[in-house]
Fold this sequence. Notes:
alpha/beta, Nucleotidyltransferase, domain 5, six-stranded mixed β-sheet, 21 strands, globular
Amino acid sequence: MSYTISIHLEEKxxxxxxxxxxxxxxxxxxxxxxxxxxxxxxxxxxxxxMTFVDPAEVKTILITCDFLNLFxxxxxxxGKIGYIRYLPKITRDxxxxxxxxLREHVLLGTVDSFEGLEATLKIMGLQKLSALAINxxxxxxxxxxxxxxxxxxxxxxxxxxxxxxxxxxxxxYTERExxxxxxxxxxxxxxxxxxxxxxxxxxxxxxxxxxxxxxxxMLMTESKAHQFPIFTVKAPLAACFLMDASRFSxxxxxxxxxxxxxxxxxxxxxxxxxxxxxxHYCQISFNIPHPFTRRVLLTSRSDSDTLAEAIKExxxxxxxxxxxxxxxxxxxxxxxNSILFRICQRLYLPIFNTNTxxxxxxxxxxxxxxxEYCLSDYTDANRPKIQAALWDNLNQELISENLTSTGEWxxxxxxxxxxxxxxxxxxxRLGLYGPYK
Length: 437
């Protein structure tokens, strides 16, 4: 037997379920304990006692959460981080979180040389920091690498998480800075989160693969979640738009209800349409892929005609006039269901009710292993050799993560040339996604 436990962490409570081959055998909902260890103990013990399942038969743990939301609510720790701008020609020295309450969490240093970097590390070593971020200017990426910086950081600050802006492959400095800082603020608490999860699993007797849902509706490995927890922002919303790709193989519109709102989202191949778009948090803006949605506010004063007109306008905006894409609804409200059915009939759109509980949709999410690079000298002559090496790196990660790439997995490779940079520079993103075996 091979069981899966899915844990869906929300702001005030946790939903969990136990499943085998997609069939749900037990579900539960509980409040947070005094700390995460107590919470995880409650989750596992409750599900296992309900079903009498041998812990050794649990092979997969699925996590759905928004780590930024857990940071805000205090469910993961909020330590102080160091941040060093490396700008050989200093163009800014104002604090990146100047107008944000997050400023108190970030100790800033700005340097223009390697010697200045080491001097700043010595000063930061006098503070108690939980992580360090270094953001080199683009033309410094090739010599300010993790291999060069890690020994220096260890010497002056001790062993702590180090994150480099170059790992994010964003050319714009401010865009990279905001993304790097929010991500680094999350990392220490996320390390504790998974540490407590592993401690509980060991106490209970579970040895399982841990996978975490991303905001694009795909699952990432635990090591990737440690490195880039920011990719979980809006992941619980992405879970709402996961559907069976064998039933809805093309485009679809899914409609859900949350917090007195109707939310409409596009899907493709059973995954949410997730363009890279701004997220605003504590007066800071950063871009990550997350579900594109349109919303209608439900109020006690909303009459049927006004609601119907708002729904019709949104549906018209989400598909082309010559398309007939399915509309999939997951709603508890009979009156709204009736309105949607009538509008879809008028627009010649097929409509379906989904039978999959939202919290169980993560069971059908694919696993994705992807790499992204900013490469120079990416010329026609060099591309085949470079790509072969990149695919070899990805396959090595599959092996190290103990994931099996079968014939059911899909492959993708995207290239975007940066014309204003020298040496034929390109952003290359490649990966594999498919069901976890």
